[in-house]
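Box S1 | Example of a co-folding query
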Amino acid sequence: MNIKEIIDKEPIGQEIEVKGWVRTFRSNRFIALNDGSTVKNLQVVVDFENESEETLKRITTGACLKVHGIVVESQGKGQTIELNNKAIEVLGDSHPEEYPLQPKKHSMEFLREIAHLRPRTQTFGAIFRLRHALQFAVHKYFNDNGFFMVHTPIVTGSDAEGAGEMFRVSTLDPSNPPKNEDGSINWKEDFFGKETNLTVSGQLEAELFALGLGKVYTFGPTFRAENSNTTRHLAEFWMIEPEVAFNDLFDNMDLAEDCLKYVIRYVMDNCVDDLNFLHERQIQDEKGLPEDKRSMPLMDKLKFVAENEFVRCSYTEAIDILRNSKPNKKKKFQYIIEEWGADLQSEHERYLVEKHFGKPVILYDYPASIKAFYMRLNEDGKTVRAMDILFPGIGEIVGGSQREERYDVLKQKVADFGIEEESLWWYLETRKFGTCVHSGFGLGFERLINFVSGMTNIRDVIPFPRTPKNAEF
Ligand code: ATP
Ligand code: MN
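Box S1 (continued) | Returned holo structure for adenosine-5'-triphosphate
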């Protein structure tokens, strides 16, 4: 049995063996043992008679133990059962003078510097169990709704996805690359015989499959070499991208809203202990703040999102709201909204969600000029069928659209965006052979986990964050 099963089943009187790591050892008598199966610790009450002085000395924070003992009703407060040891074996010492994790609160910044050890902390245990449950819920949601998962490629030869800067994939020797006569690099000599990059999105490939399998999704890593050092951006992150034939923009919104509510409800039902821990953690963290600076307690926030309709608001309406808003008039925004057509910054998105509507918001029908080439052009000729979902504390969590399905319009858009048609011939062909209305979106997995866990920095919800100048672990 692992510690979760022991705590759930309370096998009083039974003789058991557990293995785990020491969280704390109090009064030379009480060991809080954790094996990662739950946020809760098993209390081991040390019976001196059974242990040598030598063993007791080696029971320090971080040490790995095997404990053989009998489960009894707890004498103390804080737990209902505990383990009376018959024999403790130290499987791995932790060298207390060097072990950087002490039984006290460490800053998240410090824990990022010891990312190889942070999975042993309560907070990261909770976050990564939650991450697991969320990805499971995502797969379950799509599977139960008749979607097929497609593994879109990680190495891509199309440089036209347009979602951001890409990382080059090459086996050429950078100090001595083969050259063309004009001195430029001869990519024909490279591994794939052309320039290749790490994907920024699986969308274009997912579209090909939606136009054959109907309802598909991808859930894989994506890479962006943008130099944005924010709490919301990673250079390597995971994205969930459904793509559905015959869905228009409003079907797309319904799907995204339903999916988000489903996965949030799933973890509320299945990750109670971890969420309660993170909920308490947030309250403790924000204790020192004035009341109006504190965020909504985690569990209330999740319930609020799971139970309320998302607001739907067009870009044009949003611009009116922002233009007339206090922070705009008082020039409190860093970017003042003056005209229709302006790109919305995170500060504007958060104003709409947190101050104006107080709910998740789906913004739609954006100006064509600030969105990607593949989004369907509206009859007005200046807006496209795009949608972004904005969440409190997070800003954009989903970006999606109805795709341009008309061959001529798409071909023109490709040209207008200065994209070489040859690099997208296969994409354009789908609009020539049995084209149809279809839509999809990208949900940033780490932004979702940030929201659900109440963490404030995206680096703390991915096991090994990749950010500018940082790929240590
Ligand atoms: P942003 O404007 O926030 O930089 P984006 O518009 O570039 O995002 P999209 O290309 O629409 O993002 O990607 C779809 C989703 O992927 C976003 O809604 C977001 O949840 C997530 N996402 C995008 N870029 C990143 C990143 N660098 N790190 C983590 N998640 C990201
Ligand atoms: Mn976007």
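The chain has two domains: 3-102, 122-165+200-460. The radius of gyration is 27 Å.
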